[in-house]
């Protein structure tokens, strides 16, 4: 019926094959790369030390020679779980505060897409983690799951406060030393002034000229020190 | 009638086509090239000084390198080829002769003048036909004639004759220029025939497929991935991501520097063994005991721990170099010193990205830390060091001589406000400054643009009250008073007012024009303003001898909530001002009142809102202003009341409102004196300025509060 000129059709067919082939290869390579990329994303948080401690306490291997694993006191396991919850609280706070900033930055194009992916993954992970902690807590002590995070929150807040206090207190020795030195220098200055006053009035004037300079250096400084204390 | 598309066989059209095409591409490229090669910093004024430190050459070479990087080779090549092609095309156009299409003219064919009468025409035709009729005429072999030639010649002659005598043919000739009637016209395509001639087709297809199948996807792809690679702030996206991870609510300037060192830019700068070369020496230098700070690099114990926790690699080297730069530590190695000055501008650009991140969190502390870090990076000062080190020739020894063992630093303003003799006695001396150096340093200090805020208040354009959710303008009035200025004129109270532009003055409303005080109305004493074309003036380039870039200083104005430590109104940035800062000589300050305006939306509830206003300069340490401002938002009903009293209360008698008012039995109200209540008040300035300054600002503040 139809006399098909196969030879003439060869060229368009080859064109179609090349076209479709290119698209297929491109999309396959692109997707594979994307998948590898997202699989290799670094986790948002580092290793969860507290969780590892808790889990290793829970699944302690029996020592060589003995049949049974050593018995861990309940209080130790509970303390380990509480520590784990405290770390979770720290992480969850970090995620909550970062979420809005991260999404607004992403919209503006100030941070990259992969950061957002990592962030979302961390968020999901933390949800699972919280659920797991609640279940573990209920398993150890029925009803504890409802309040474990409250206590963990208190502990975390306390720790933050304590860290700040320690930081301030670490300064004391330094400051004390400086004040001692300062007091000594001011004292010696005064003594010198007194001596000079005794020795003669004319010289006393020259000596006292240095003093206002010292006072002067301090007056404009009220602000920087105020700023420091606010930080 | 036939239309016939022909390719450009004679080759006289396509040069035009190519010329136009190249012109369209080359001219914008040339413009781009010229614009780029002009030095943008040349239009800015500079702070005049003779100061040269030991590494001026290194800094200059880095600056030049940066400029060279800006110039793109492909652009130069593209423009050059473009002009070359255009030149060649012009040459072709000049030399190629276009084929001449003669107009068909019957008079010429018959060889008679156009004024010939019909008789003459007829006689000429008869003569010619006698002579040239194919039956009569003989083929002249010497002229290489054929019978056809003779025929056609005779046909032409008879056609010409007919055109001049026959009515129809004549009409044809007049209308179409040809006795045969309308002719088919030809369209020439300005492409050389070579393109379509047999055998070349495959090359054309190849070129086409390379153009659209390879080059176009490549360009689009490289553009798209290029935009993905860099964040909005112009740093690598990976760096921005890392810095986001480094953000902490309690971060300080040192922390910002550490965060900046995570930038991927440094990995590219310190590739391979560059990452570790000289690291040990570098670290021993910056961790040695410093003159002013416990460590020479000026880093705190916390920063030192952070540095030591890092794995050795590009980041550790970058961080160590940054501290060496900030502490102005001499490294005694040309390569290391060069790297030291090269890392700072990168950190400065990374800090911009960090600034955006801090702003997204809306916490005051990190945002300020980011601005302070910018100041430190530009001035090469470690955190919490003396601002006096910004002055040329000021070494730690000089600073020590000024500050003694005081823990709080003397600001440049504080230092310069002392009498000259006292300053001199402190810093001029053996191992300190020479007389000449002192004069140069004081000269530089007197050119530094310190924005002294005179007044800050809120207003809504065209309204007396600020009602909830209205668009509030924060107006900051201030003068550039360089430290140590001796004859600072009093503030003119009229300068502090912000007059709304007339409602019909669109240019002024949109900010294209500013108002200028032209005089005072003699009767009312009200100032008269005239709108003038706004001419924006930038501050002189930052006096930053160690920073390997030219930087134009910027001022950021933002409001924070001091109780929550959060940013209430995000920063507005000002790099240009409406009045000149210095006279034409670039040294004498004008003390002109500058107006900075920032618009934001008022809170939805009425009440008093106390904000802390920060005015932060990003280039100089210790030039920041921090003051409390109160925003008073009135109930919307109150504003409406005022409006009723004001606007509608005086209906004219013949107006409808007047009649309505009379019908209600209301007496025409007397216009009430509007309550002279300012919408704002500002109080105690907390900036680190001297007492005198505080006095004069607070005096103006109370002035505005006073009820008149």
TrEMBL record, chain A:
Which keywords, in A-to-Z order, does the entry hold?
Membrane, Transmembrane, Transmembrane helix
* Pfam families in alphabetical order: Sec66
Q: Where is the composition biased (Polar residues)?
A: 216-231
Stretches that traverse the bilayer: 6-26
GO biological process assignments: post-translational protein targeting to membrane, translocation
Q: Name one GO cellular component term.
A: Sec62/Sec63 complex
Location of region: Disordered:
189-231
Under InterPro entries, the record lists: Sec66 (IPR018624)
Say yes or no: keyword Transmembrane present: yes
UniProt-recorded name of the protein:
Sec62/63 complex, subunit Sec66
Q: Which organism's genome codes for this protein?
A: Chaetomidium leptoderma
UniProtKB/TrEMBL annotation, chain B:
One GO term in the molecular function aspect is: RNA binding
User: Which region ranges are annotated with the description Disordered?
Assistant: 642-708
Q: Name one GO biological process term.
A: SRP-dependent cotranslational protein targeting to membrane
What Gene Ontology cellular component terms go with this record? Sec62/Sec63 complex
Where this protein primarily resides, as one coarse class?
A: endoplasmic reticulum
Task: Return the Low complexity bias intervals.
Answer: 698-708
Q: Where is the composition biased (Acidic residues)?
A: 642-655, 679-697
Protein's cellular compartments: Endoplasmic reticulum membrane
SMART domains recorded for this chain? DnaJ, Sec63
Q: Does the keyword Membrane feature in the UniProt annotation? A: yes
Any one Pfam family match given in the protein's UniProt record, by short name: Sec63
InterPro entries named in the record? C2_domain_sf, DnaJ_domain, DnaJ_domain_CS, Ig_E-set, J_dom_sf, Sec63-dom
Query: What is this entry's stated membrane topology?
Result: Multi-pass membrane protein
Annotated TM spans: 12-34, 73-93, 203-225
The J domain sits at 105-177
Q: Which UniProt keywords apply?
A: Chaperone, Endoplasmic reticulum, Membrane, Protein transport, Transmembrane, Transmembrane helix, Transport
Q: Does the keyword Chaperone apply?
A: yes
Q: What is this protein called?
A: J domain-containing protein
Give the species: Chaetomidium leptoderma
